[in-house]
Specification:
The protein is an all-alpha fold and 209 residues long. Helix content is 61%, strand content 0%. It has 9 helices and no strands. α7 packs across α8. It is globular.
């Protein structure tokens, strides 16, 4: 591939593909230089470091993931939205293991600034949960529960951590039924007083971090 054809976007996309192929931990500037057939130094005009490269791969993956989730939940509410959200999350995590791993890297503020991905992720996630009538601080608590449940389940499934004969997909569906019941019966927290307002939800508090 000609050196002139390399752009920052193509470099990051190649990094995301490499993450899925060989694992996110193997995404390096040197590995991508070999893929493009150039010297390492020629890529540093597009990314400052391997850390920035990985951060940009994570942002790309987070954007892909929330786009899939948003399309799945569009026009749905309540349990239908929850199941659509969760199924889209799980499908992306299992189909793109390297990209998914990239979404859990602590983001560099310099990379995230100006990107619509964190805000869009928060809007889609919190919007789905508002269908259950939740408000802060319960919204953030519920997001943390979903994030922990979805990530834990997908991680264990990806490494073959479920050894019982019960079908993994059946357990997933039953877990979503249980989450729906829990969200419908969430123990409401009294709103914070005006003198000590609750902090606004951080974009990091989303199930696809």
């Amino acid at each position: 591939m000609a050196r002139a054809g390399i752009t920052a976007d193509r470099l990051v996309a190649a990094g995301a593909d490499l993450a899925d192929e060989v694992g996110f931990e193997h995404v390096t500037v040197s590995a991508l230089a070999r893929r493009f057939g150039v010297k390492d130094a020629s890529l540093y005009s597009h990314v400052r470091s391997a850390q920035e490269l990985r951060a940009r791969v994570g942002l790309l993956a987070a954007g892909e993931m929330i786009d899939r989730i948003a399309a799945a939940v569009a026009g749905r509410a309540g349990k239908d939205a929850l199941v659509a959200f969760a199924d889209a999350y799980r499908a992306y995590a299992l189909e793109h293991p390297g990209r998914y791993r990239a979404t859990h890297v602590q983001q560099d503020p310099a990379v995230v600034v100006g990107s619509p991905v964190p805000r869009r992720t928060a809007e889609v996630t919190y919007g789905m949960l508002r269908g259950y009538g939740l408000a802060e601080p319960d919204l953030t608590d519920a997001v943390r529960l979903l994030r922990s449940t979805f990530h834990g389940y997908c991680h264990l499934e990806s490494i073959g951590g479920f050894g019982a004969p019960r079908e993994v997909a059946a357990s997933w569906a039953n877990s979503l039924d249980a989450l729906h019941v829990l969200l419908e019966n969430w123990p409401r927290t009294a709103p914070a007083s005006p003198a000590s307002p609750a902090s606004p939800a951080s974009p990091k508090e989303t199930p696809d971090d």
